[in-house]
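Task: sequence design from structure.
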């Protein structure tokens, strides 16, 4: 058996096409995410930049409220109509705390704002209760909308996300974020830092559950957090990163700050890839711009 000279092996390695070497380098820097499932998508092209267990059906907690908001706005209900918190809106399943006492009356628009920004469960429940036909009709509308959006792995059983049987996939939630981003109120309310409402004679201030909305390092166009024990910490966002409109979905993050850490790792990865691409194109004498990440299908690795 003939031995291949070492010089030829070296020549073969250094003769690899440039794009193959760069692809390998990009994959080497792919972020290691601690969330159980994730999806990063280019909003404009639909290109999948990163996927992890993207088709696994998982509880989604308060990410549910995005769909509650969509069907509420689709119904074109009076935003100034008074909506009252009733005993039926109190969380008997988990006993979650709410600052909105039974009897509190706010406009539908204020309830929508609190449900999206502060993830107020009683506000979301009141929105579903005031939907034409009540909560059952609202949930039916939510599931029908999911079908229309092609969210085949998604099922809703309530409008708050307190039910662990509200399930979806990272892939489906990317579709939900894309759809929700088309609604100006959802964009505005999910990214506002705080809201002050008058309850009786008191003025109450509520804050955004996603602290990244208060960071100057992020350009966030839509945001929603979620948490119940079965779902872990969840986060979806539409952001502008490296000059691109990006959708980020993170499900079942095991630690309190893991979803924020994963989002930061994704941002750093995209910014690094963009700078590498720009430097390569400049050195090659090519125009600036172009895609900076691969369009691989979601990986099946568990991370």
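Answer:
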């Amino acid at each position: 058996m003939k031995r291949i000279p070492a010089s030829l092996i070296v020549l073969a390695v250094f003769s690899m096409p440039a794009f193959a070497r760069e692809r390998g380098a990009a994959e080497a820097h792919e972020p290691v995410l601690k969330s159980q499932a994730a999806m990063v998508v280019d909003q404009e092209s639909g290109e999948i930049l990163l996927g992890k267990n993207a088709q696994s059906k998982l509880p989604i907690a308060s990410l549910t409220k995005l769909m509650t908001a969509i069907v509420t706005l689709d119904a074109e209900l009076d935003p100034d109509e008074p909506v009252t918190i009733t005993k039926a809106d109190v969380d008997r399943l988990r006993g979650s705390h709410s600052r909105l006492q039974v009897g509190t009356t706010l406009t539908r628009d204020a309830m929508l704002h609190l449900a999206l920004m502060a993830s107020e469960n009683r506000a979301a429940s009141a929105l579903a209760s005031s939907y034409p036909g009540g909560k059952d009709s609202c949930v039916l509308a939510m599931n029908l909308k999911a079908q229309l959006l092609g969210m085949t792995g998604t099922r809703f059983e309530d409008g708050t996300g307190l039910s662990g049987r509200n399930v979806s996939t990272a892939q489906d939630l990317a579709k939900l974020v894309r759809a929700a981003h088309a609604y100006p109120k959802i964009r505005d309310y999910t990214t506002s830092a705080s809201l002050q409402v008058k309850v009786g004679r008191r003025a109450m201030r509520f804050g955004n559950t996603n602290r990244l909305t208060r960071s100057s390092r992020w350009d966030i166009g839509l945001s929603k957090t979620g948490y119940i024990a079965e779902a872990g910490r969840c986060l979806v966002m539409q952001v502008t990163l490296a000059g691109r409109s990006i959708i980020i979905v993170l499900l079942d993050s095991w630690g309190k700050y893991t979803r924020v850490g994963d989002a930061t790792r994704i941002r750093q990865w995209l910014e690094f890839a963009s700078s590498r691409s720009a430097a390569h194109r400049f050195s090659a004498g090519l125009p600036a711009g172009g895609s900076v990440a691969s369009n691989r299908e979601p990986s099946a690795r568990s991370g």
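The longest strand covers residues 232-241.
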